[in-house]
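Quick one, probably user error.
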């Protein structure tokens, strides 16, 4: 887990060096089963950063990063919370997302046992919903450009640098994916509140609901990066991406 975070933060700092603390090292203690990750120290204010500054840096991370193989995935395993992510390099965004969904559903079943209703819904999701919403992104000459994503971008992993007044992010589980699939800036700190969890859009880990800061972030983000075509599918894609992330948090309970 600490190795994955170390490599994630290295990649983010290559693109946006002032947007994240510089990682220094990671390792294991010699005489105990404890592990560590060290990074630069910054005195942080927990208040949410200014929207223009925050969105500018998120957009820069998405626009100026380059997948080393032009594919979706990451070069090491990362963890979202306690959940191991499948970062196998994949040349199709639809396939990468579907494989990740299959993994989350398998974890759900292993944690809670089989459920016939969930199996049927999962089949509909994998056979119909994902192809319907993600395949058009890679059809009719369109392509999804792999962008470096933080991987767990919620308000607990966002702060303001007291020395500079600029936004900073940390605690990353990075991968290269569709930029719309990330920035879930969650206000809620308890999963029991998940029906009211808002987000901005990296773009979506959880859908925005009645939160001005989140809605303003989405609007500002799209002044940097327009919604991908087909634009009319954007809201449904946002809902789909939110489903995946919310599911993974429920699995981790």
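Nope, works fine. Designed sequence:
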């Amino acid at each position: 887990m600490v190795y994955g975070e170390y490599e994630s933060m290295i990649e983010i700092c290559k693109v946006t060096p002032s947007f994240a603390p510089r990682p220094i090292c990671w390792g294991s203690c010699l005489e105990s089963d404890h592990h560590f990750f060290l990074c630069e120290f910054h005195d942080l204010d927990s208040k949410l950063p200014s929207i223009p500054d925050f969105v500018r840096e998120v957009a820069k991370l998405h626009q100026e990063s380059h997948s080393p193989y032009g594919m979706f995935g990451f070069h090491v395993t990362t963890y979202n919370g306690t959940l191991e992510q499948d970062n196998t390099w994949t040349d199709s965004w639809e396939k990468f997302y579907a494989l990740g969904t299959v993994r989350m559903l398998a974890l759900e079943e292993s944690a809670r046992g089989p459920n016939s209703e969930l199996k049927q819904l999962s089949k509909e999701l994998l056979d119909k919903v994902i192809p319907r919403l993600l395949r058009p992104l890679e059809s009719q000459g369109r392509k999804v450009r792999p962008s470096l994503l933080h991987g767990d971008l919620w308000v607990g992993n966002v702060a303001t640098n007291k020395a500079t007044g600029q936004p900073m992010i940390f605690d990353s589980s990075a991968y290269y994916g569709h930029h719309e699939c990330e920035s879930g800036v969650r206000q809620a700190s308890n999963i029991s509140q998940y029906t009211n969890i808002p987000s901005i859009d990296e773009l979506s880990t959880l859908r925005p609901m009645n939160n001005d800061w989140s809605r303003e972030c989405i609007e500002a983000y799209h002044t940097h990066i327009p919604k991908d075509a087909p634009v009319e599918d954007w809201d449904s894609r946002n809902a789909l991406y939110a489903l995946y992330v919310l599911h993974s948090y429920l699995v981790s309970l």
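The longest strand covers residues 23-28.
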